[in-house]
Amino acid sequence: MDSFLPLLRRPVLVLVGALAVVPFLVGCGSAGRASAAVVNGEVIEQSTVTDLLEAQRRYYESLDDPGAADRLAAFLGAGPDSYAMTEAARSLESWINFTIARQHLERADRPVTDADRDAARSEIEAQLQSQQIPVESVDAELLEFTVESSATTSVLRKLVAEEVAADDEDREGRIQALFDELAPQRPLCLDIIVSESEADAQAALARVEGGEDFGAVAAEVSADPNTAAAEGYAGCATPEQASQAFGGDYTDVAVGDLFGPTAQNDVWVIVRIGSTTGPELEQMRPELEQQLAAEDDQAVTTRLAELVTEAKVTVDPRYGTWDPETGTITPPPAGTTTTTAPALTGP
Question: Residue 88 sits in which domain range?
Answer without folding.
Answer: 6-168+293-339
